[in-house]
Every structure is written in structure tokens, then in C-alpha cells.
Amino acid sequence: MKNIRIALVQDAERESKEAAFSALENSIAQAAQNGAKIICTQELFPTPYFCRTQDPDLFDLADEIPGPVTERFSEVAKKYNVVLILSLFEKRAPGLAHNTAAIIDADGTFLGKYRKMHIPQDPGFEEKFYFTPGDLGFKTFQTKYAKIGVIICWDQWYPESARLTALSGAEIIFCPTAIGRIAAEPAELGALQREAWLNVQCGHSVANGCYYAAVNRVGTEAGTTFWGTSFVCDFYGRRIAEGSQDKQEIVYADCDLKAMEDHRRMWPFFRDRRIDAYNGIMERFHD
Amino acid sequence: MKNIRIALVQDAERESKEAAFSALENSIAQAAQNGAKIICTQELFPTPYFCRTQDPDLFDLADEIPGPVTERFSEVAKKYNVVLILSLFEKRAPGLAHNTAAIIDADGTFLGKYRKMHIPQDPGFEEKFYFTPGDLGFKTFQTKYAKIGVIICWDQWYPESARLTALSGAEIIFCPTAIGRIAAEPAELGALQREAWLNVQCGHSVANGCYYAAVNRVGTEAGTTFWGTSFVCDFYGRRIAEGSQDKQEIVYADCDLKAMEDHRRMWPFFRDRRIDAYNGIMERFHD
Description:
Chain A is α/β, with parallel strands linked by helices. Chain A has six helices and 15 strands. The model of chain A has no long low-confidence stretch (mean pLDDT 97).
């Protein structure tokens, strides 16, 4: 048995970046004390979800990666001997920014970054204005405790994201996200959307025979109510841990990597993939 | 509103092919009377699930497609003005057979066939012995009532199957299947496997913004208990119809194709696919 405890930090908007950093440091200390080895934040954890409007001044919120933020949390990772996944707004060049996750190993080493590949654009989620689509592809990172992959928010709807990450060997896929219901939409629609969000991601874990962890915000920011529900599902798509819809909390799950391998031997989906017949995936649509 | 009622014929092993054909004719008459416009059988409906052992004599069970079976059911389709999806064992040449679905339009026209692309092989499901992997690719068929796609059983675990079918325009994806628990496995494992089976397929409907219908057997055949649960889910992955785990029955659902388009405009997943970054899908694994 090879059990790895992971922790998802489900938090709400904080009054400042410094307050968010400080709150995360406290959460990491607590999670580490509770045995967590890999700790992941929600999407864009240092700030409010700022993509509600299209405002050039908000590019000021971006941070360089690596840079002061990752340096600060490298020290924290090392102190507690934990792997950290930080979801950040990345400044790359003037007018060129990404929605990026930074991965820091348990010894404080900066392992690399993943840049969100699929960028949404709809009222209240004006992301194509801010985020250049990722150019690093889908990736995995060999950490001290497990081989992990990270995808971000809108990526979660695309089976290709999870598949490509799993084909690179990810045992656990993390997905920081910021998803909720805008005030203009009825509550029943929000409930359906949340259900769809759960269904598609639990599907990824089954299709790829791996663990999958989604980390979402809670709280209402300028009319958008984030639905929390940060969860971990196993390779049956069964949610083995799930947070509330409205509370700041840390969600824990134990991932049994030996059980995962046993399962994959019985249902060896990767064995039978028809790689000779998937060319059409590279096309927009088959007219 | 464009509502199409579909019907899934969840049946058990019959004493002969003739009995199975006759039972299906009765089911089609009943479903048509209840307003169904597209009717789908479980996998390999004319026979027991014969892949429990590897026996060359069992190739005698195969039928030519098109051939006498499709000719017989073309008459039935025409009589009731319904689209039929028949899951059959296809004889192609000596020692060359496929697991195939035949699609017949409401005027009796044979529209074509889909050959199962992903073939399993594990104790009690010795399919690689019988079925040559499909060579027709993933397909859709424009029927009188809707544009439909068909995948078969083991295909159901592969997001690529549903994706490629949806990219060809499928509004409803049908999946005849024969899945259950072998006697050697504990009931708890069977329950988990059934849950995984539901989860991954409901995920397909979300990811592709379409309806999805799975049609399974019931009953116990030589120790294998098929778990029924034929279901239809909508584009939220919500099961809008679901059959029992153990009864022969017809499962009905109404598919609202206008609501499906409305939904896709709001969540336009196909708009943002990173077709520049999916090359790795064509590889077995990324070592």
C-alpha cells in the first residue's frame, strides 16, 4: 500500500494578497500537521476572481513565476516537507500574461509550471481578455510523493486535458478552479451546472484510471457565488472526499497508488486505445 | 422545441435467435406505440453473451450485415416508421468477424454500420478472440429524426470514442453494451464497477454537450450477472431515464435537441478545443 494524503485549500476572497499568502501559510501548516503531503490552492488564490470585467489595470495583479511568490512558498514547502501547487496570475511580458500553476517540491525546489490551455469567455468570466492560452502543453511533475499533473478550471471540461496528462504518467491530477453561478442565472441552472461539473471530472478519473482533485473557491464576489464542493475522486469516479458549498475549509483525501495500479491491471484502458484511429481529434469539427 | 423520444430495449438471454428476433419485434411495436422514434438494442441481442470462452464453433452465430437480419428489421422499421439500431455479431469472411451495429432508417433504408473499435480481453470477456477491431472509424448517421452516433461496450470507457462521434455531429450517442459481474468477483466490487460505468459515460455527455444512451442486458448467463441499468443522460450528465438492474423492460427518454443547442451556445466547449496541442493523443504513452 502506498497511501498519499492530499489537501485541497478551499478558501474565499481575502482582503489583500498579503492576507491570502498569510492565510495559505496557516492552511499549509495545518494540513501538514494533519499528514497532508501534497497541497493545492484554488484558482488564482491570491486575489479576488478579477475576470468579471475587462480592465487593463488589473494586469497589475500578475506575478512573475518563478519570482517572489514562489520563493516565499518554496521556504514554506521545505519547512513542512510538502509539495505545493499554487494557482497564480503569471506576468510574462507587457500585455502577455497566463493563468498558471507553479509546482514546488517538498524540498523547496521549483519544479516548473503549467499554463492553462483552454481559456473561457462568457459574461462574468472574461478570461480571453487576460490570459494568453498556455504554450507549455499538458504536463506532469515527478514530486517526492507522487507523479502529479495539473490542469486549470476550463481545462476541466476537456477529456483531452485529463487524457494527455494521464498519458504522461500522472497518478493524481489536480485542478484549481473558480466556478460558480452569476446572479443573472437562476439557482436551478446553477445546481445543474454544478452537477455537470462533478460528472465530467469524475468521468476523467474513470477514463484514465487515476485520482482527480478539484479545488474551488467559496463565497460571493460581486454577484458571483462560487460553489466550493472541492472534491477528490478515485478511479471509479467515486468522490472519496468532498467539501461544503460555502465554507472555507481544507479537504483531505488519501490516495492509494498501489490500489490504483491493481485496478489498472484489471481494466487496462491504455492497452486498447486505438491510436491509429484518433486523427480526427486534431480537427475542429468533421463537416 | 424539438423533442425526440428514444427507447432502449433492455432484454435478457432468449432461448434462440428466432425467439430474440420475435421478442424484439414485440418490443419495437410497443415502443412505437409509446411514441419512440429511435430504438436501440443491447449488445449482441440475438444470442447469449457467448464470449465467456474461446470456441471457434461459436463463429457460427455470426450474421452478414446487410443480410437476412437487417432485411427482416428493415420491414419492421418501415412498418412502425422508427429508426433501429441493432447490435449484431457480423460475419465478414471466414475467420474475420466484427462486433457491429446496423443502423436502419425509419423508411427501412439500411444506413450503414459501425464496427466496435476498442476490444476488451479479460476472464469471462474473451472478445479479442472473436472480434476484429473495427476499421470503419467513429461515425454518425443522419436519420429521419436526429443525427446519431453509435459506439459499442468497451468503447464506452474511451473519451476518444464519444469525442470523435460528437465531432461528426452526433446529437445522441447510443451505446449497446453487455456488462456485468462475473461470479468470481465480490458484489462490492461489482457495485463499484457499475458506478464507474455510469460515471464515465455521464462524463461523455457533458464533455460533448449531447445526449447519451447506454443499453445493457439483464439476467445471469453462466455465472455472469449483467447489471441492466440502461440509461439516458442529458448534456449535464444527469440521468433522465434509468432502467432496473434486473428486469426486462423498455427504457424511454425524451431528447430535446433545441435545449441541447441552447446549452452549447452557453458552454461552447468545441469553440475552445486546443487542436494545436492534442498530438499526444495519437501516442500510446509519453515515456
